[in-house]
Design goal:
The complex is a heterodimer of chains A (249) and B (308). With 249 residues, chain A is an alpha/beta fold. Chain A contains six helices and 13 strands. Chain A has one domain: 3-Layer(aba) Sandwich (Rossmann fold). Chain B is an alpha/beta fold and 308 residues long. In chain B, the strands form three sheets. Chain B has a seven-stranded parallel beta sheet with strand order 5-9-4-1-2-3-10, with helices on both faces. Chain B has a five-stranded parallel beta sheet with strand order 13-12-14-15-16.
Amino acid sequence: MKVLVPVKRVIDYNVKPRVKADGTGVDLANVKMSMNPFDEIAVEEAIRLREKGAATEIIAVSIGEQKAQETLRTALAMGADRAILVVTDEMPEPLAVAKILKAIVDEEQPGLVILGKQAIDDDSNQVGQMLAALTGRPQGTFASKVEIDGDTVKVTREVDGGLETVSLKSPAIVTTDLRLNEPRYASLPNIMKAKSKPLAQKTAADYGVDVTPRLTVVKVEEPAKRQAGVKVADVDELIGKLKVLGVVE
Amino acid sequence: MSVLVLVEHDNATLKDATLAAVTAAGKLGEVHALVAGQGAQGVADEAAKIAGVTKVLLADDAAYGHQLAENVAPLVVELMSGYDAFVAPATANGKNIAPRVAALLDVMQISEVMGIEGDQFLRPTYAGNALATVTSSDAKKVLTVRGTAFAKADKTGGSASVEPVSGKGDQGLSSFVGAEIAQSERPELTSAKIIVSGGRALQNSENFHSLIEPLADKLGAGVGASRAAVDAGYVPNDYQVGQTGKIVAPEVYIAVGISGAIQHLAGMKDSKTIIAINKDEDAPIFQVADIGLVGDLFKIVPELTEKL
């Protein structure tokens, strides 16, 4: 079974994003970029499926600027077999990303697609569900456990208040939540080996997808900052404050 | 404009997340509510009483019993021929279904909407560190809305009619196997007025339960946790408050032994009053706290619980 794993190049999760002074977006110049953490979990899960014998080939896909190639090399160093880079001038919106991925799914016919539940830059949480809709496949979103059993995929999902398990008819789309696994680090020999793994370059036009955005960003602002308040000396003073707030009588 | 709101429910009761979605939808136009479920007549009756809802559509079918996105999305898409916008609460369920609807309608969804002004939508990006104002060129709009960002519509005062609708039913793509939903007497995190949250400083699960829970119960509060406490296994993951967990905005948020990582702050910084108890006076949580108490939580929390 082929597994397709879309990965996105985003601001590193340890970097605090700074909004540009002109309000047009977030300043990404000279900022450390990395693979979206949820996508790392997706790559790891695909590798584990191959280690268990459930997957045969892992194809990593990235859509975006030329530099997304670095993110694909990371996926290849972790263990993906080959990669596809779809180069675009601007980062397409989730709907266009899902359309490009649909075209790749049509071409590659993977038995499973695993993606991060959301990218930590635009926080949309849409691509997996949209890809499932466009391909007419079932979706196991926010997965904390994935089990392949013949032609069904059992996915345990993180939902409000607990966990829910669904059974999906293969081929399915799965999106990862944080606790699905802990991604491995690529070893130095694997990083070297990844440099010679196949990486195909495409454009959105190759897949006949119009990536014109539907949303227009009017402005981007920093949220209002909270001011630090007062420190109290002891529990009695704290209770006094709670009384003022009307929390206790 | 006419708007269809997805009702959040468990077939037995209507969840509060619906009420904020109704308020948000009301800013766009006339609000109808969709209850997709099984044996959910009671939920539909509740929805009909919400102030601002003028009609309730009830799709009662075994295929919708567990609100599988594969079955609910085609139902919504069919109904959307009569609506200009679809609004779902940004709950696990809403986030699962809405993008599937959006893609089938060829619409770019606007996620986690926090504000609506005319045709402009405010939404958080970068874990709430950058707020984007966007407009949409799509003929129909699909939104998920953040429950803490909108006032709750009144649960009474409405007298909408309930109209049965049916869809294509089971698409044969997925089935429900089971659920482990934590049963708790305490208020749900996303609707609690007061929340007491514990962090890694509690050191273990026993301390979490013996210190945080009695304090929460004294205050009638919900119980939350930082990602560090969840990852360390002190409490199950549905306790997690933060960007990757639940987004909360109670009247009072009490952070106990939580340092205040960016990812945690993103989930609670809209709380009205933040109280922090931490032994490290330089902890970032004090930069957002309205009231701070520096000291040993193992002494402070029992004393506080006892004196309340």
